[in-house]
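Student: Hello, beginner here. Can you help me understand the protein record under this note? Any guidance would be welcome.
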Amino acid sequence: MKFKNITKIKLGILIFSIIYIILFGIFYMQKVNYEFIMYVSVLVFFMILIGWLNSKYNFSEGVLIGVSIWGLLHMLGGYLRVGDGVLYTYWILPFLRYDMLVHCFGFGFATLASYYILKPSLKKEKLNLSMIIFLVLIGMGLGAFNEIVEFILVLTLPKTGVGGYNNTMWDIVFNTIGAIIAVVYIKFVKEKKF
């Protein structure tokens, strides 16, 4: 496999991601945590996919840093103990749980990555309303795919920390908020640089 569009910073991001994925993989295997062993497998798949997509679409270093941090936040969410539970269940504010923040952050960066994939088709056009809606829907669709993966885990594993219907709906809300924030950033910050 030939690596294209890889800078020293991108290589550093890749090495950082590989290290934390291996460390958390070892930890979750020692704890026999099947849910997070599956998540580690999903991270490996997406790391390979993002590497391949980067060779075609040349993601910015910022997008790759964000996606890598998202993976790390996800791994920490199931690892760090806070009170009687794990970090994922921790309420940062009375209305904001760690899990919600990770969904918003992650699917914001997933939407940004989607923009890089679509950008060659835009032909220097600025985002219009239909493209903005389309990008938000892509971010929401990626979030829905995540919820399907979690649903499969609930169906196949005897015990998970996924949560119930209420958790799924909050995940969808915060996936959407992340996608909207990403599109606002693209429209009012990123496009000003072109």
Notes: Residues 8-193 form one domain. Helices lie at 8-30, 34-57, 61-79, 98-122, 129-156, 165-190. The beta strands are 81-82, 85-86, 91-93, 96-97.
